[in-house]
Amino acid sequence: MKTWAVYFEQPMPYRQTAELQERLVAARLREEIPDTILFLEHLPVITLGRRGRDRHLLASRKQLEKKGIALELAPRGGDVTYHGPGQLVIYPILRLRPSDSGAHGYLYNLEEIALRTARDFNVRAYRRPGMNGVWCDRGKIAAIGFRLQHWISSHGMSFNVNTDLGGFENIVACGLVGESVASLETILGTDCPPLPHVRRSMCRHAAEVLDRKLETIPPARLRRTLDLIQNGGRRRSQSVPQPPASLQLLRS
Amino acid sequence: MNIPENLRYTKTHEWVRIEGDTATVGITEFAQEQLGDLTFVELPAVGRAVTAGEETAVVESVKAASDIYAPLPGTVTEVNQALNEHPELINTDPYDKGWIFRIKLSDKADQSVLLDAAQYAEIAGGN
C-alpha cells in the first residue's frame, strides 16, 4: 500500500498536530491507515522534549506570550526547540521495518532527507560527529526529535526555510550552548526558494530515503478517514476488548 | 542473540522475570540494540497501578523517545533508580543491572499471554 503524504497549507497550532499524531499512531497501530507523512508549518511555539524540559529556556512563559510564542511539552525525544512559519516540519507516522534499521537508522534517514533537500538548493549541508541534526557553515539547519510507540514513529524533523530565527533566541536550541541556527534564507538571501518548492523536494527525498511510494492526499481526506475510523472504533470497542497490538518490526 | 531461557517475553520486546507475585521488567538485548545508545529513562511513579500493555516507562536514545509497556496488570513497587544516572546500563546489561521497574501482579494477571524464549526468538529474528 502507498504511503500517504499530506500537505497542510496553513501554519498549525502545535497541540493540534500533537493530537492528530496521537490519533494517527493509534490508527496505524490497528492497521487502519497506511504509513503517513505530514508536511506542515507550525504557528510560533517553543517545545520542550522529555529530556530537556525547561533547562534551556531563556524566557518566561509570560515573555513568550507577549511575543506570540506558545510553550508546549512535547513527547518526542531531544531537547528544546522552536517552530514557526517558514520552517518546514515533517512528521512521518511509519511502522518501522527491518530495513529502517531501528531508531538509529531512522535518525540517519531523517538527517539524510534534510541533507539531500539542502543540496537541491545548492546549500552545502553535512552531519557533525556526535551531534544530531543537519548542519551547514552558518549553523544548524535541521533538528530532529521523534517518538516510537510499538515501533511506530511520530514527530520527526524540522527544516528552516525562511523562518524568523529570532524565535530561537529564547532558547538554547537543542541544549547546545554556543551553536547558531541557520535557514536556507540565511544562506541564500533573496534567492531562497518558496516553501512549497522545498516541500516538493523534501517529499521526493523522503520517498527515496524511507523507501516508500508516496501518494499525496488532501488533509480533508485524512480527517474524514480518522473520523470514520473513530466512529467505527467506538462501536467495536463496546463489543470487543482491545488487545495490546503486537510489534511487527521484523514481520511487517 | 542473547535470549535467556529463564525469562518470559512480550511481543513489544520487554523481558519479564516472575518471582512469586512480583514481575521485574526490562527490555531485551534485541530492543536495546535497535534503539541504540540510551541517554535518558523516564521511570514510573512507585505505587502507580498499570494495566497490561499500558505505557509505563520511556527510554530515550539519540533523538528517539520510545515507550515501554507493562507486560501484566499490577502496581509498580520499585524502579531502578540507577538508570537516572546511568541509562546506559540498559545497553551494557539489559537483563540484569538494566532492569527498569517491578510490579506486584494483580490477582487477574494472566501469565499465559507472555512468550517463552523460543517464541520470542522467532519474533526477534529467529536465531
Structural overview:
The complex is a heterodimer of chains A (252) and B (127). Chain A has 252 residues and is an alpha/beta fold. Chain A has one domain: Bira Bifunctional Protein, Domain 2 (BirA Bifunctional Protein, domain 2), CATH 3.30.930.10. Chain A contains six helices and eleven strands. In chain A, helix 2 (61-66) links the parallel strand 3 (45-48) and strand 4 (70-73). In chain A, helix 3 packs across helix 5 (195-209). The radius of gyration of chain A is 18 Å and the shape is globular. Mean pLDDT of chain A is 89; it is low at 234-252. With 127 residues, chain B is α+β, with helices and mostly antiparallel strands. Chain B has one domain: RNA polymerase II/Efflux pump adaptor protein, barrel-sandwich hybrid domain (OB fold (Dihydrolipoamide Acetyltransferase, E2P), Beta Barrel), CATH 2.40.50.100. The longest helix of chain B has 7 residues, at 29-35. The chains are: A alpha/beta (252), B alpha+beta (127). The A-B interface holds A 49-51, 75-78, 102-104, 106-107, 132, 144-150, 243-244, 246-247, 249-251 and B 11-13, 33-36, 39-40, 42, 52-53, 55, 58, 60-67, 69, 123-125. Strand 9 of chain A pairs parallel with strand 7 of chain B, so a sheet runs across the interface.
